[in-house]
Amino acid sequence: MRTKEELGRLELLGASASSTSYPTDYDPQVLETFPNKHPENDYLVSLMCTEFTSLCPKTGQPDFAKIIINYIPGDLMVESKSLKLYLFSFRNHGDFHEDCVNIIMKDLVALMQPRYIEVIGLFTPRGGIAIYPFANHADETHRDLAANRMAAAMRTDFRDTL
């Protein structure tokens, strides 16, 4: 069971909907972590946001995506409500699909220093073009995993995940 000290660090989880502030601009400061109780194990955590939105930096038109985050935690893990609010903060953020995926990955690496992380963006086609950026990062021990996952992503069209 989690201790009060571990849970006390989480400000967003358990807050009522009326007291939750939804960021309207990109805000990595909203992200929160909690301790990994099993740091001796390599295990996979998968998170999926099915309603990600951002804006085209040139036209201002909305872009929609499914964002998939897979990571092997180190000492810290991302709290899911804070992740939801963080991803929501991209709603008015103007960046290309590839930039959004890399920003998300880099922010999560800085936040929790995972052993391995990958972020996949399955963006809804606009103008007949679908863009599916894939970014990953690994510690020294998991470099081979990162290379293998990147190679696999290059052979995948991700249609089965839509």
Plain-language structure description:
The protein is an alpha+beta fold. It has one domain: GTP Cyclohydrolase I, domain 2 (2-Layer Sandwich). Helices cover 26% and strands 25% of the residues. The protein has a 4-stranded antiparallel β-sheet, with helices on both faces.
Q: Topology, please?
A:
Layout: H1 4-8, E1 33-35, E2 45-55, E3 62-72, E4 76-78, H2 80-88, H3 97-112, E5 116-123, E6 134-138, H4 143-154
Antiparallel strand pairs: 1-4, 2-3, 3-5, 5-6
Structural class call reads alpha+beta
Number of strands: 6
Task: Count structural domains.
Answer: 1
CATH superfamily, by name, is: GTP cyclohydrolase I, C-terminal domain/NADPH-dependent 7-cyano-7-deazaguanine reductase, N-terminal domain
How large is the share of residues in beta strands? 25-35%
**Given this structure, which CATH class is correct?**
Alpha Beta
Strand order of the largest sheet: 2-3-5-6
How would you state the average pLDDT, rounded?
A: 90
Order of helices and strands: HEEEEHHEEH
**What is the fold-level CATH name, i.e. the topology?**
GTP Cyclohydrolase I, domain 2
Q: State the end-to-end CA separation.
A: 36 Å
Largest sheet: 4 strands, antiparallel
Architecture (CATH level 2) name: 2-Layer Sandwich
Q: Give the overall shape, derived from the CA principal axes.
A: flat
Helical fraction equals 25-40%
Q: Count of helices?
A: 4
Uncertain runs: none
- C-alpha Rg, in Å? 16 Å
Can you give me a brief rundown of this structure?
The protein is an alpha+beta fold and 162 residues long.
